Amino acid sequence: MSRQLTNLTIPFDLMGEKEPFKINFETAVTEAIDEVFTTLGENVKQAIYSYLENKHGIKKEQIPSMIEGFTDAIESIFGDAAKLVELKIMEKLQSKVKGFAYKSKRKEVFFAEYLAALQRHLDWQCMLPNV
Question: What is the DSSP string of 5-22?
């Protein structure tokens, strides 16, 4: 019998059955950001992480818990194009977390609000038993 949760599902065979893998918020965000930065090139990615740590005191693994500081840092690096980077990160997250739907109450989608909603969703999913 195949089971699928709304979280990322990695199919692997465990005695003939596919088991879901629940992804947590920190992992999802860190991976999505890393994947987006990788599209800019390895040297650019390393430069961004270095800038985040040296100028803003944000290490790669701290990003999920320091979203406001990360957003400010991205805006200082990319200027108006920061919104495009944020959208790409949200796109990556949507592909990682199946079944998560976010609808903004405003016309604009705010990165921090999106991530807060995603965190609530993933926290809730982690509390569900594997049925």
Answer: -SS-----EETTEE---P
